[in-house]
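Lecture 7 notes: from sequence to structure.

We start with a single chain of 327 residues. Read the sequence below before looking at the structure.
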Amino acid sequence: MASQLTEYRGSGLAGGMGIAALALGGLALANALIAKRDERRYPPRGRFVTVDGVRLHYLEAGSGPPVVVLHGNVSAADDALASGIFDRLAQNHRVVAFDRPGMGHSERPRGPDWTPEDQARLLAHAFAMLGIDRPVVIGHSYGTLVALALALDHPDAADGLVLMAGYYFPTKRLDALLAAPAAVPVVGDLLRHTVSPPFAKVMMPAVLKTLFAPRPVPDDLEETFPAALTTRPGQLRANAQDGVTLVPAAERMQHRYAGLRLPVAIIAGLEDRVVEQREQSGRLHRVIPHSTLHWVPDAGHMVHYAAPGLVVRSVDQLAAERAPAGS
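Now the structure, written as tokens:
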């Protein structure tokens, strides 16, 4: 009797595991099909360049002094279009907005940790390939660390920085802890192909509300920004890696900021609910005495949507100070 009961329990466990495996397989297939659908809905709007074996997607328009835009985490180059800064800048500048590795339509191969320094090195090589000569670099959120890494590690790559809603000094962050499992090999792969995409889609409205608060989420955001692409399995890995590398990168880089000599404009929303900007942007301004600091009232983390004109004016001012090539 005991052996029969044990056999029954064993077969029941095996059956349950089989059902679970089938369910996860079905979920993975569904997520793959949804990702393909979303990619058809939001096809690439720009061009591609292969740099060090990595295929990068970028948007480009206009002519004049060069400007490069680097978006934040859980985002894409289309953010520059949706906010309006891309078209405004293109009136007087050659503006290039990159999908950072793993975001939008750019690749993120396995291998590197894809720290801000890794991404800056790749982008510096992309600048050389595309003939982008010492641009003003705009960084938003995580993109500010990539912009700073460009200036610190590749001093000839940029002539000025506009840093928006950035994170510059290490703090304890719950979001980094929550991102960790999805960045772990095998476990992360299982999560991002099965339960993570539908969970991310369910959470997206709340995430957007927090990002834009205290202002409302723009009514046309679904048409102008491909939020659905940020929940694909591939980009979820990139999102998680950026989340995990955020704090260590700030720890590594914070002691070098004071050595920056290029012009720096810092822009922050006074009511940012993602990053404590008085602690971050205010402190960075003190560390870089020649920087300018612009506080935007009634604005949160997506400060460039609240004050696109300020972003463009800051770029114009830095471009006017741009040193002659070769100096």
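The chain has 13 helices and eight strands. Keep this in mind for problem set 3.
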